[in-house]
Amino acid sequence: MRITLTITRFNPDTDHQPHTAHYRLDVGRGATVLDTLLRVRNEQEGSLALRYSCRSAICGSCAMEINGTEKLACRTSVRKEWERHGAIAVAPLRNLPVIKDLVVDMSPFWGKIREVTPWLSSAPGDPGSSDRQHHLSPGSYSFHNVDACIMCGACVAACTVHEVSPQFLGPAALAKADRFLEDPREPQAAKRHRLAVLEQEHGMWDCTRCNFCVEVCPKDVQPMEAIIRLRRSALEAGLTSTGGARHITGFVELIRRHGRLNEALMPLKIVGFNLLHVLRVLPLGLAMLRKGKVPSPFAPAIAGMARVRSIFAATKRRGDAA
């Protein structure tokens, strides 16, 4: 099968901007994108820079953008990509600085991992302390597969929030934080401290739940689900002062009280009793009033209100029982 491989190239010593280069070659039907890139480097362009190691989808080194999606080159079939897209276009991971060609600087990625304290926090005498062993029995814990992360960086490259807010901790780091929050060896005080740190600006509440991190993860870690678990744990711990937490608690309160979302009250639930913030959302409230988005306070209750409240009551009983 004869194909044209398009590679985004950049040499900081000679180039001002990235550019594309095209390479024609014959490949077998079982070839991977990594196989093809290595052939290009060995046969046509010896200066091509790329990163790889295990060739078995274990190390995560060969993560890159292939036809617009973050993938591992070692497990991506050239034939399938060609049949689906009619082309093979390869570029470095987005949202990370490019060192050369397909090699990106992973320092920002590792920096965010370090920010979430990716190790057990414990004091002498605690079950997780280093001065004693603590064995986990089967069934006593569940990491929800977040421990399968190979740190390839694909989720960060696909993250839409990271694209506009580089300070965002990112899906990989937050999933790593969830792994330690789920660890029974972590003391409760340390877990609460983790949540208090993660609820701050650029933390777990910045995620917009676009789901791209879940789609591109080669190990089915599902980072977005980990972020949702972090948020749920923060609410259960009473950490409800941030805008994101107030959005959820306010939404639930309005549904419980009125059986539907009141769009006029929702912004007030988020900003809280802060006069300056209220004045900022006042123009939004006036615009909603003109568009008929503000329900009449004298309108009768919606039909089925008793059923809505019974759902909340049943949920509370299950939570108390657990």
How would you describe this protein?
The protein has 322 residues and is α+β, with helices and mostly antiparallel strands. The protein has 3 domains: 2-103, Roll (Ubiquitin-like (UB roll)), CATH 3.10.20; 106-236, Alpha-helical ferredoxin (Fumarate Reductase Iron-sulfur Protein, Chain B, domain 2, Orthogonal Bundle), CATH 1.10.1060.10; 243-321, no CATH class. It is built from 13 helices and 7 strands. A 5-stranded mixed beta sheet has the order 2-1-5-3-4. Strands 6-7 form a two-stranded antiparallel ribbon. A hairpin with a 2-residue loop joins strand 3 (63-66) and strand 4. Helix 3 packs parallel to helix 6. The chain is globular, with a radius of gyration of 25 Å. The model has no long low-confidence stretch (mean pLDDT 90).
Strand order of the largest sheet: 2-1-5-3-4
N-to-C terminal Cα separation, in Å?
A: 59 Å
Largest sheet, strands/sense/barrel? 5 strands, mixed
Q: How much is the radius of gyration in Å?
A: 25 Å
Q: How many structural domains in the coordinates? A: 3
Alpha plus pi helix count:
13
Succession of helices and strands: EEHEEHEEEHHHHHHHHHHH
Instruction: Give start-end ranges of low-pLDDT stretches.
Output: none
Let me know the number of strands. Answer: 7
SS strand fraction: 5-15%
CATH architecture of the largest domain: Orthogonal Bundle
